[in-house]
Amino acid sequence: MNAVVQAKAASRHLLSGNEAVARAAWEAGVRVAAAYPGTPATEILENIALYPDIYSEWSVNEKVAVEVAIGASLAGSRALAAMKHVGMNVASDAFMTQALAGVVGGLVIVVADDVGLSSSQNEQDSRYWGRFGHLPILEPADSQEAYDMVQQAFDLSEEYEVPVIVRMTTRVCHVKGRVTFAGERWERPAAGFQKNPQRWVMTPANAKPRLPLMHERDRRLRQVAETSDLNEVFKGSDRRIGFITSGPAFMHVRETFPHAPLLKLGFSHPAPLDQIRAFAGTVDTLIVVEETEPLLETEIRAAGLDVHGKDLLPRFGELAPSVLRPAINPLLGEPWEVPNRPQSSVFPRPPTMCASCPHLGPYFALSHIRNLNIIGDIGCYTLGAGHPWNALDTCTCMGASLSMAHGMDKGRGASDAHKHIVAVIGDSTFLHMGMQGLLNMIYNRGNVTVLLLDNRSVGMTGGQENPGTGENLHGLPAPRVDFVKLVEALGVRPERIRMVDPYELPTMVKLVREEVKMEEPSVIITDRPCSLTDRFERFRSYEVIDDQCTGCGNCIDLGCPAIFVARRETVIAKNGKSKELVFARIDANACTGCHMCVETCAPDAIVQPPASNRVIRIHSHA
Amino acid sequence: MHDGIVNILVVGIGGQGVMTASEMLARTALSQGYDVKKTEVAGMAQRGGVVSSHVRFGPRIYSPQIDSGEADLLIGFEAAEALRWLPYLRPTGIAMVNTLRIAPPVVSVGLYHYPTDPIGELMAAGIEVHAFDAGAIAERLGNPKLVNTIMLGAISDHLPFPADVLKECIVTGFRAYKPKLADSNAQAFDAGREAGHAQTVSRQSGA
After folding, report:
1. CB-side exposure of B8: number of CA atoms within 13 Å?
2. Residue B177 — very low, low, confident or very high, per pLDDT cuts 50/70/90?
3. Could you tell me if A181 and A58 are in contact, meaning their C-beta atoms sit under 8 angstroms apart?
4. I need a labelling partner for A37 at 20 to 30 A (CA). Which of A286, B65, B86, B99 fits?
5. A293: CATH
6. ipTM of the complex
7. Same domain for A109 and A58?
8. In CATH, what number is assigned to the domain containing residue B165?
9. CB-CB: which of A14, A251, A568 is closest to B63?
């Protein structure tokens, strides 16, 4: 059992923001928690799962997670849903209406904005959702505040019958800091669902009278913000510049300008405009520092105050002392010269696929077949856009590959007349939002070859479970979806559903070649587990017999990070042209014996060391 | 150390144990009564990408990030990575570097070159450099995963608390969760500490 789970009140811990949220949810008496994995929010549910008093689940997507939380709230339980910023786009349909109906048991949505795009396809400021959906927003700046604010968020949610957004960023979720626990769990039994169709059945007739109530709630919440202890003034001694900040921006301002007066907004929406006005009167120049969009700044300016903000500071990316100093010091008449240090010229080291990754086979195949437009999706397989495969042409959002591929098929230009359209999607992404795209393609008689890369995990976020893995969040057995039956039920003809072992490269290449030529949708399903999960079985490593290696470089094309270039030689080929030979070497520590590279090696120079008499198990499918 | 704050940057490649090492430093600092913050960009880092973990401790820590030029200690788990993060080190800083070289696929396919002498370049920058082959020590001790404990042992005499406090924190953790590994990690720590002392120290003039 995790030490934090058993920890008593008043104990002190080094916790990430995500771990602090989990502990706070437990103490607040949360009974139901749901999420879909997504960086940087994934660990919230992983840590909540450690507390046996809370029912917790991986939901199939963020909308489902929020709906599960809403249902639990209507049953009278405190409930929490967690997601990364793009998850809010998916979930918004649910909470935009529930914001009108309201909640019973406290309902908190913890959203993690990946400011700086450490592992995301875009950058979004989720604080917009508070404005859009009429939901209050709390913004913790570190782990201790995440712990404190999540508990306050539940009280606020219940008192005002409103879902509350706790807005985190990567630098709150993944920063570890000191947290002191105030208490232990406070059990809050569910009150039970009270039927009230006028309140809970959002027909136009029932929803309409909720609108003025929602606006009245906004007004009352603004009054709460005006006196909330989450909004704190730091007096400071140098009043030439005063700051209004929220979230982790507070930390950077405090670090950089420790003597400046500062109003820190923990309860940042609805913004306490009277308090802001009063604070503005105590400083010569007011600067709003927020990540990332100028939301507070715009509202403060609209309230008639003269402020600086994004005129000085960047509107995207992470703030840091190194960003604040050069932007703000000139206002103090103290220009900051960016130190002129020699910049490193070291090669880039982009993330890559792993040794034995079951995606290597499909990408080897895709990179060897011409005339494909390859429409990608969100997952480790997005890395197929990189070297050496260069075999992914788009990536937009969860599940988009199938529908975008269908659209590309229907909207073909003359230059694409001879092209085959391929969609690449993983198991979890397919179940999250991809299968609707396949259903749509079948229904509308599209023609796309789908590669459903089933590695039995949510790989990119660290190998979480999903309905395709056979286990749940707690590692307990769960019904496993049958992808073959599922895609057949959606309308793919059985002849066009092909199961393949992605390690069998010749079969992999042959299957893709065959299926792209078909005049109807095909689904090729791979079935090897992610090599970073426990489901993966490691075999004895291989080695290259140096004097048998001909330098053809085919194994390098696989993109396996266990294969290195031993040496290069330039030779003159029979046709008189010079040709570069690339001789390979396998790192025995990194190689996990998947044997894919063996299939690329014509001279049989890749072998298992002679001591081994173990035979690699290859399963084949009819 | 400035204003009583210690900034340590731990760098390497996904999967090398960088985050575990920085976690140990942060926990030990917390146990010594410091305010602590530790941050890294995770997410895709596990897939063989660059990992940098920032550990800051002192009387009160606000921003979790170490700015360029403000690290007191740089712990490099791989030679080129240490060189990549060199601009983060103060001119008075110390670099403790594992001489391991790992070339990524972009180097294998010939798009980029691996620096010929990364340790030499570090030394030429005028900082204090300690470099040794932590992998060889780990291999001698029978477990390649010991590299991060070896690196922690190597840096342990440059911290504001006794080396044994860090060692105890590491070993206690193993005793609680992986008792079989407690002894080998204690040995690894001592071996790293010795290696950190024995290796050539360089502080050349001029940058």
Report:
1. 27
2. confident
3. no
4. B65
5. 3.40.50.920
6. 0.92
7. yes
8. 3.40.920.10
9. A251
